[in-house]
Design a protein that fits this description.
elongated, 5 helices, mainly alpha, 155 residues, disordered C terminus, 3-stranded parallel β-sheet
């Protein structure tokens, strides 16, 4: 911000991207949770420091179906997406174009600054306490994938 802000036009915007993990932590995700929390705190601080010349906002997307899952076996990927969608209040996972629309809003709306916008299908309020059958199936497939090849051949 110290070096980039002077290069931005007056009335411009900075939009950061964080994630749900700082407010809805997961096992073995403490570094990501801490980083996301820092980005969100930076958003609010910079909105004060750089305003009114620049607006600073942050997008916190939920689970989005992108190419990052292309490496997974197709059946496991589809089950994971279905199980995740089933756990969310909107019963679907995010799509890249929806996240793009939210980013555009944060970058273009002239009366929005210091905001962390959750675009997550209700991830913040989803219920983890009742895993469904799909979740159990995906979980068991993950254990098979992580076993050494020699163990799988013996079974």
């Amino acid at each position: 911000a110290k070096y980039g802000a002077p290069k931005l036009a007056d009335g411009g915007a900075v939009v950061f991207v964080s994630g749900v993990l700082n407010r809805r932590p997961g096992l073995h995700c403490s570094p990501l949770g801490a980083a996301n929390g820092a980005v969100e705190a930076l958003t609010r601080s910079l909105a004060l420091e750089l305003g009114p010349r620049l607006r600073v906002n942050c997008l916190s997307p939920g689970f989005v179906d992108t190419e990052r899952f292309a490496h997974m076996p197709a059946e496991r990927r589809e089950l994971m997406l279905e199980a995740t969608a089933d756990s969310l209040p909107l019963k679907c996972v995010g799509q890249p174009e929806v996240i793009g629309e939210a980013l555009y809003f944060l970058a273009s709306n002239k009366f929005t600054t210091g905001v962390v916008l959750d675009v997550d299908g209700g991830h913040q309020i989803r219920q983890y306490a009742m895993p469904n059958d799909l979740y159990a199936k995906v979980k068991s497939m993950g254990k098979e994938d992580s076993e050494p090849q020699s163990k799988r051949q013996k079974a």
